[in-house]
Amino acid sequence: MRYGQLVIGPAGSGKSTYCHMIQQHCETIHRTVYVVNMDPAAEHFDYPVIADIRELVQVTDVMEDEELNFGPNGGLVFCMEFFLQNIEWLEEKLGDSEDDYILFDCPGQIELYTHIPAMRQFADVLKSWNFNICSVFLLDCHFIVDATKMFSGIMTALSSMILLELPHINILSKIDLLSSKAKKSLDKYLDPDPHDLLDEVSAHVDPKYQKLNKAISSLINDYSFVQFLPLDISDEGSKDNVLLQIDMTIQYGEDLDVNTKAMDGADDQD
Amino acid sequence: MATKTVINEPPRDIITPQVQASPDTSSGPNKTLSPTPCILVVGMAGAGKTTFVQRLTAHLHSKAAPPYVINLDPAVLKLPYPVNIDIRDTVNYKEVMKQYGLGPNGGIMTALNLFSTQFDQVLQYIEKRANEHSLVIFDTPGQLEVFTWSASGTIITDTLGLTLPTIVVYVLDTSRSVNPTTFMSNMLNACSILYKTTLPFILVMNKCDIIDNGFAVEWMKDFTVFRQALSQETSFMSNLVQSMSLALEEFYSNISSVGVSSLTGAGINEFLAAVDKGRVEYWDYLARRKKISEQREREMKEKTIDKLTELKKQSGKGTKLKLGLDLAVQPEYEYEIEDDIYGVGGESPDEGDLVHDEDLDLDES
């Protein structure tokens, strides 16, 4: 069994930073995590990757190609379709060693999930390669300034969730950039009391949506997994928590041998 | 096909990238409210936003009620309609990509960010010209989330919302939505935008010439039909999806939706009727927003006074000193304004001024 995270989210939500951070964090706790760049339009990233889709196809090349003459979006769709046709390339790159843990840094455009089944197919292929995967949806916490924005974020997360049909984790990124006051005001949305949330939303939107507000807030209440986990990259505890939640979701570590070396090390210190 | 009207290229209003020395401060954009409605056309790439705007523009021109059109998509190659303000006149996104070393997505985003710093100029132009036009139309970038989940998109939507009767138009590709999962995902996105902006909202089911939107209307009206379609399509019929589609039913029942064909022009009149309806709704939106900001203002004042009274009550152990605190005098207090919640001050310096006009006024009061 192998393990993987599909890292998704809108452009600029911090997907690449997240991958980099998780990789470094795992290094410090003696775990090996690999990263694969899946975004053919990626600019730069400062982490080592075991595979980069841009080696196969690059969106700027497609856009500049005289015959194809695509805009940025058409170019991306073309790249993803081309990638799926040449999926063996990735299979070769990934190898087949057991217990690998791989992060897939995916492109953010929602169109790739809704209009063409590219990402869905990719997820299915990974499953067939004996991967246990989950989708990790990142959202920039700066947009969650009040309850209506929280609702909005939840709806966006849900829309990619139902398309991928994978176990799903929502993360609010960039918490470390907030002022302490903003952090405090964010807290109430992380573990929301549905009634408070409902009251606040009702003040903001047209009264005719009252029933819709109620329906969504009961959705939040009934299904705790539409909640967001905060991720503060300056805080080790926050990273641990996020990683733990994801590991539990993909059942990583359930059949691992006990790391005796680390335990011996701990004993030595005592 | 509707009759083709020849439209002369209107004089272009160009937004200069330089900061203007003295913008006309005598009439701030928030003080004089123009009655001309404004629509923000959003939707996924390929949903047909641009063709929809083209059809709408042609229709309005043929009725001798020309709209004021603003293109916000820096990556569009060719615009099939006359445009009054074009982001491409201000920012060259290919140049942005090159200079900042960005990919296409980052390029579009940065171009939009740069443009939004000059958004006050756009508003001034609209102010000036609004009376000559029947409708102000914004065509947004292809990628949905570049507009909805970016600082610049938020700035533009929020500022417009305070200035003009703004209506959000979500364009849906009907032909792609025959798959119930795609349909639902689209609807969730639409719903997300509704909450994000809280503005009046119109759902446009575009491309009705390819496939009639009857199926979607039926799904929206009757939950059981939709559930049936969904169960045929996917194996993932969890409770969540069921509850979600039930919740969305409330969304459908309140939303104004119009089937439109941008190719044949069918449904445009219905759409304009929906715009009129949205225009009425807008005043409620404005009243709500004003109320919220007033409430925030009041709360902040109360907090300050509370703090001061508390300080006054505390009896110190030392000798009594006159602190010079007088509640009758309005305390000069440094408010910590909440704009840093956006935390993007560094990226777009004008953001604070644009979004939090009322909040900033606090400081002066």
TrEMBL record, chain A:
Alphabetical UniProt keywords: GTP-binding, Hydrolase, Nucleotide-binding
Pfam family, one: ATP_bind_1
Organism domain of life: Eukaryota
Cross-referenced PANTHER family: GPN-LOOP GTPASE 3 (PTHR21231:SF7), XPA-BINDING PROTEIN 1-RELATED (PTHR21231)
UniProt similarity note: Belongs to the GPN-loop GTPase family.
Function: Small GTPase required for proper localization of RNA polymerase II (RNAPII). May act at an RNAP assembly step prior to nuclear import.
Name of the protein in question: GPN-loop GTPase 3
Automatic annotation (TrEMBL), chain B:
E.C. number(s) listed in UniProt: 3.6.5.-
Entry keyword annotation includes Transferase: no
Subcellular localization(s) per the UniProt record: Cytoplasm; Nucleus
Function: Small GTPase required for proper nuclear import of RNA polymerase II (RNAPII). May act at an RNAP assembly step prior to nuclear import.
Biased composition (Polar residues): 17-32
The species this protein was found in: Oopsacas minuta
Biased composition (Acidic residues): 348-365
Alphabetical keyword list: Coiled coil, Cytoplasm, GTP-binding, Hydrolase, Nucleotide-binding, Nucleus
This protein's name: GPN-loop GTPase
Family assignment from sequence similarity: Belongs to the GPN-loop GTPase family.
Stored PANTHER family: GPN-LOOP GTPASE 1, XPA-BINDING PROTEIN 1-RELATED
InterPro entries: AAA+_ATPase, Gpn, Gpn1/Npa3/XAB1, P-loop_NTPase
Keyword Disulfide bond: no
The protein's assembly and partners: Binds to RNA polymerase II.
Domain AAA+ ATPase, chain residue ranges per copy: 35-182
One Pfam family, short name: ATP_bind_1
Transmembrane residue ranges: none
SUPFAM superfamilies membership: P-loop containing nucleoside triphosphate hydrolases
An annotated Gene Ontology molecular function: GTP binding
Class of this enzyme: hydrolase
Listed GO CC annotations: cytoplasm; nucleus
Region (Disordered): 1-32, 342-365
